Amino acid sequence: MTPDYGRAFALLRDAAGQTWADYTHHTFVEGLRDGTLPREAFLRYLVQDYIFLMHFGRAWALGVVKSETPEEMKACAATVDGLINQELQLHVGICAKEGLNEDDLFNTPEHPSNLAYTRYVMDAGQSGDLADLLVCLAPCVMGYGEIGLRLAEKAGDTPYREWIDTYASEDYQNVCREAGAVLDAALARRIGDDLTAAPRWSRLSHRFTTATRLEIDFWQMGLTG
Amino acid sequence: MTPDYGRAFALLRDAAGQTWADYTHHTFVEGLRDGTLPREAFLRYLVQDYIFLMHFGRAWALGVVKSETPEEMKACAATVDGLINQELQLHVGICAKEGLNEDDLFNTPEHPSNLAYTRYVMDAGQSGDLADLLVCLAPCVMGYGEIGLRLAEKAGDTPYREWIDTYASEDYQNVCREAGAVLDAALARRIGDDLTAAPRWSRLSHRFTTATRLEIDFWQMGLTG
Amino acid sequence: MTPDYGRAFALLRDAAGQTWADYTHHTFVEGLRDGTLPREAFLRYLVQDYIFLMHFGRAWALGVVKSETPEEMKACAATVDGLINQELQLHVGICAKEGLNEDDLFNTPEHPSNLAYTRYVMDAGQSGDLADLLVCLAPCVMGYGEIGLRLAEKAGDTPYREWIDTYASEDYQNVCREAGAVLDAALARRIGDDLTAAPRWSRLSHRFTTATRLEIDFWQMGLTG
Amino acid sequence: MTPDYGRAFALLRDAAGQTWADYTHHTFVEGLRDGTLPREAFLRYLVQDYIFLMHFGRAWALGVVKSETPEEMKACAATVDGLINQELQLHVGICAKEGLNEDDLFNTPEHPSNLAYTRYVMDAGQSGDLADLLVCLAPCVMGYGEIGLRLAEKAGDTPYREWIDTYASEDYQNVCREAGAVLDAALARRIGDDLTAAPRWSRLSHRFTTATRLEIDFWQMGLTG
Could you tell me which chain C residue has the CA closest to the CA of A189? Predict the structure, then answer.
């Protein structure tokens, strides 16, 4: 059972095939579920994820720059503010409990896997239009939603319950559904209703799969540094 | 008496000289103050200003893309959301009373003076760094604050009291002071504390004056179409 | 008889209708043809056109940034170098004969009509993809080719023969045909073969017409300053 | 003995310290020198380097977009054309001898180390100004020049003599000296003459070192895939 985050996501997810499964069922994810993930791996991930979120905020801001309608602008702008002025602060709070303040986070050397992922997304936006950008943002937004839901259902006794609950929450599931609706509308506007028949489909799908591949590298960075 | 919106603004304003006075004391502005501005001129302005605000929202979003610190990101992101999900809606409300819905606004042909101003700002951001962008955003943000304050004090019996009060309000004056602080910090970070001695000063000052010149054209567009 | 610069251009030109005619038969153009254009109007145009060409070079460079294939990159890169390291120098040569050196040109205050046009094109590239950018570049490239051809055939005794011959030349006509081929390929790749049926057609066509409108303002600037 | 590619490069190189040595004396480089580099490692590098050069061409094109003077534009535009319409074709020629045509090259899946490096550079340009971009481009341009010179002097009997000679050639050394002059002028213009005392120095130096670090990962990708 996969959650319904819209038509485009379902098609892009299918096209990504095994790569999607490798991302959403990565050893790191299974370790969150059954509690076997070493604490240091989680912390390594968390610190890099702070930097990731800053660039993710920049990428959604680039979405505002590239919007063509008031609806697109409003949706992207709300996400920018949500990410930077709320989610990032939540993150800072979790890290503070581990003894890391925001300056530590901000000054952490960025891992190459973090650079590769975030800058690939930024450049997709610089190179193409809003469709190119949104298909790169989808694997993170919706992948975490899908992982959160599955883990909430199947998780054992795990110290990572808070992480799981965040992404399984109705709030976050709404974020995924709204992002899916924005993606559907943006693609309909730019490539038409018959998504897979559009000339840009293979390139957009390739971008989605590349971003998914970079998510796998991000989990791996958490595991092995 | 000019309001205190920070060091950089005061220096840029001085450097703009007569151009700044021509902007803040434009016939359009004096017409708002004494109530002689024709209603149709105000409406012409209002409709174009809706489109202006959309691009202004895009420009602040570009500020998020170009931020180097969490503080810069947070300030720009808050402004993006404020502009797009609040101020723009206020605008829609005022226009609705005049019988114009948001689709009408969005589909109004953009005046060349609007194109010149908004796209100049966007390209300043694309071409330079956050300092280049912020000095282009300052004349609008702070100029309206300064105009609002002066008009609130000196306005006669005018149907444009609501417009004046918006920009004279403590809320809007805070926006100006915060934008001034962001500008001061962004310039200190990029060109140092001795602003007028920095190699980039003449170019940054030229950008500020150019944007001010484009504000004059914007008022003129309201007056004469 | 209109020259054949490819399918997309023909369709965009048709869609622009009277606006296209107003541009290609502007009083300024007719003055070049019959020699009635005042010298000072021509010089005013020439000086602003130097600044225009610099930004046009930037815009084709943005085309390289936004290319998706080696063919797109090669075509845009060749145009960038041609514009900046050749055409711009030709321009400098013509102006030198009039007693203006390159520093004078570079430091001329930019006219609002110049700002509006060039920055609109740059922002179209920042906002959209290569298709959005190329349809904004087409009116200038191909319009000058069409004007050049017509004037070469119909020009009377005019001091502007050199200008006319430049754009009527086989060299420049090849530039137009190649730009047309790049545009055709870029659109086929992004919106498919049935151009006018594609969801993006109306927006792309609107961009072409807007750029054409800004060409009219540019001639007008030459005439009336 | 290090070659003289200008003031800024010398200071940035010093600041990068051991990271610079790790890049220019990487095992891959020593394998080119003494001929012990496995052919398959060289080919793996060559194929990824084709993709790298395409993005490097895009990055120099972004330099045109971000230029503030005719000199900056001309230098960047010449480099764009040189890279895309000449150097890239040289590369295609070498690969053709190995049985790889340009379509094969273009369609090779991009390695994460390639993504990380090229997109980091593109985003530095999107985020900052020309100075931010040029310091990211310097390690590749000048590093290859320095490596070429040293290897030409010290190389034994190696099948990679052609590669070495390309970068040791007077032609390529001129490219390095010109890039160094562009960098010096761009920095003087933006941060002043006392480079290391400028507020932006630590950030620019950090960018240079980060790009150098990504060069190391690029060699490593050649060695180990």
Answer: C199
Rounded distance, CA C8 to CA C18, Å?
A: 18
Mean local confidence (pLDDT), C194-218: 98
Domain count, chain A: 1
* B73/A64 CB distance under 8 A: no
At C15-36, the pLDDT tens digits run 999 999 999 999 999 999 999 9
Cα C29 from Cα C35, distance rounded (Å): 10
Mutate to test the interface with A, among C73, C122, C127, C189 (most CBs of A within 10 A): C127
Domain limits for position C86: 7-224
Residue D128 domain flag: yes
- pLDDT tens string D72-121: 999 999 999 888 888 888 888 888 988 889 888 988 999 999 999 999 99
Name residue B174's amino acid. N
- With b for 16 or more beta-carbon neighbours within 10 A and e for fewer, the D10-31 pattern comes to bbbbebbeebbebbbebbbbeb
Query: For residue A129, is pLDDT > 90?
Result: yes
* Through-space distance between the first and last CA atoms of chain C, rounded to whole angstroms: 32
Residue D159's closest CA among D29, D39, D44? Answer: D39
Residues from chain A contacting residue C129 (CB–CB below 8 Å):
127-129, 132
**Range A182-201 average pLDDT:** 98
- With respect to residue C2, please indicate whether it lies within any of the assigned structural domains: no
Read off the amino acid at residue A85: N
**D1 located within any domain:** no
By CB neighbour count within 10 A (0-12 exposed, 13-18 middle, 19+ buried), where does C62 fall? buried
**Among D77, D106, D122, whose Cβ lies nearest the Cβ of C85?**
D77
Of A74, A85, A122, the CB nearest to B74: A85
Both tokens of A103, joined, read: 């300056």
Q: What is the pTM of this model?
A: 0.97
- Structure tokens belonging to residue B36: 């002689």
CB contact under 8 A, A115 and D119: yes
Each residue of D110-158: pLDDT tens digit?
Answer: 999 999 999 999 999 999 999 999 999 999 999 999 999 999 999 889 9
Residue D101 dihedral angles phi and psi, to the nearest 5°: -95, 175
Question: Chain D partners of B188 at a C-beta cutoff of 8 Å?
Answer: 199
Burial D52-81 (b: 16+ CB within 10 A, else e): bbbbbbbbbbbbbbbbbebebbbbbbbbbb
Chain B partners (3+ C-beta pairs within 8 A)? A, C, D
Split at pLDDT 50, 70, 90, the class of C186 is very high
Do the beta carbons of residue C26 and residue C206 sit within 8 Å? no
Q: How many Cβ pairs closer than 8 A exist between chain B and D?
A: 40
Q: Is there a domain that residue C72 lies in?
A: yes
Helix, strand, coil share (%) of chain C residues, nearest 5: 80, 0, 20
**How far is B122 from B116, CA to CA, in rounded Å?**
10
Confidence at residue C174, expressed as pLDDT on a 0 to 100 scale: 95
Predicted ipTM?
0.95
Mutate to test the interface with A, among B84, B88, B121 (most CBs of A within 10 A): B84
Q: Please give, rounded to a whole number of angstroms, the shortest distance from the CA of D74 to a CA of chain B.
A: 16
Number of A to D CB contacts under 8 A, please give it.
46
Instruction: Look at residue C54 in the predicted model and tell me its pLDDT.
Output: 95
Residues of C in contact with B116 (CB under 8 A): 112-113, 115-116, 119
Chain A residues whose CB is inside 8 A of the C126 CB are 65-66
- pLDDT, one tens digit per residue, over D2-39 is 899 999 999 999 999 999 999 999 999 999 999 999 99
Domain CATH for C213: 1.20.910.10
Tell me the C-alpha distance between A217 and A113, whole Å.
6
Q: Contact, D221 vs D115, CB < 8 A?
A: no
**By the 8 A CB rule, do C92 and C49 touch?**
no
The residue type at D28:
F
